[in-house]
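### Sample
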Amino acid sequence: MKGRKGWVYAGLLATSVLVLQGCGGGNNTPGNSGTSGGDSDTNTNAGTETVTLKVWGDLGNQAVLESAYNEINAAFEEQHSDIKLQYDFAQNDQSLSVALQANELPDLFIVQGDKTPKMAEMVRNGFLMPLDDYNLDLSRFTESEIAYGTVEGKLYSSLPAFLDTQLVYYNKDIFADNGIEMPGTWDEFVAALDTLKAAGITPISLAGKQEWDRAWPVYALAAAHASPQLQAIAEGAGDLTAPEIGQAFQYYRDFADNGYFGKDFLAQDTAAAQFAFTNGKAAMIIDGTWNNSTYEDSGLNLGRFSVPNAEGKRIVAPSYSNFMTYAVSADAEHPDQAVKYIEFLNGQEAQQILENHAGLIPTISDIEPKNEAVSELANFDEAGGNIYSLLSTLATADTNTPDIMMKDLNPKLLTSKITGEEAAQTLHEAANYEK
């Protein structure tokens, strides 16, 4: 760890080098992808008690994860005949908040590690069970991956094995039909946007209604254009008034003002934005690497690139994937069996299953990339600043800087109510640089 608490810039930068070397070549309804059952029954084959663990999956990413967790959970139950999994895609921000308030957490649920302050808050309030007494084998993981699941020196979650970032998915056929090549510089990117707009094609499909999905361009633009400034803040040597940060926000507003998101993007949810792209109504979509399989399976002639800056350097906003990072509730009825699931998720077998289904960027060398397309996801020059993670380190009890950006400033930028400089100034005034 370096600089402010929760900032993993240095560790992720080292990880990105390994990734590049190794990879060179929600509107869903809750479902059940495991075996359901009561709290316990009798395992007649083994002659021992069988316990049931209640596990929550990521509701918002059910479409991406369901087939993978069907296989992961089946493999786990095959190895542990005395454990059944009641695995439901039931977790989102709202359901987790309700469960925490009512103290009715499932046995295992997803946490986001040190990407946000939430896991540490749950630890401080006694909701999570520490895992240190179980002496888990962490030898496959780096220090920064272990730090992800650690709070005040104790481990509380299974560990990440994949890297997330945001990039541009594009329709190669639309590009070719309009004489556009994959842009190598920022000016070439903007020229491509103008060419597509002039041809009557929506350049970028955006889910303007969705708090998180409308923010992915901000992550990508901030990383591409203001990474040195974000890193300086993380190291205590700068602040959010740096002109480059305001300019990154201004580019986001300019994309909306110039019609690059189309006409009706403010009324568009995630499903509609993805549908517009996969059905050829838009040439590009800026989205996370975690949705790679969604676009890969669409049948598009698909390409991928990270946003280039003025010099043509591709700097991205990295974070560890939380697709496999689970914690055990402090009130779990069967903690020893719950830890068995943690151990399984930490292992190569489960991680390879997820890779085979989702095609993510692995950070551990013994996970084989799904196909050569994964190398496009990892085709960046540098792991740079993640603006959300940084803002999380600058938050106070009274001023939640990440929420200010996500809930207030981004909508105002998209509707031309503020400038990029004003957005950066607002965040600066709310930030606590003294941590």
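Residues 1-46 have pLDDT under 50 and may be disordered. This sample (Extracellular solute-binding protein) is used throughout the tutorial notebook.
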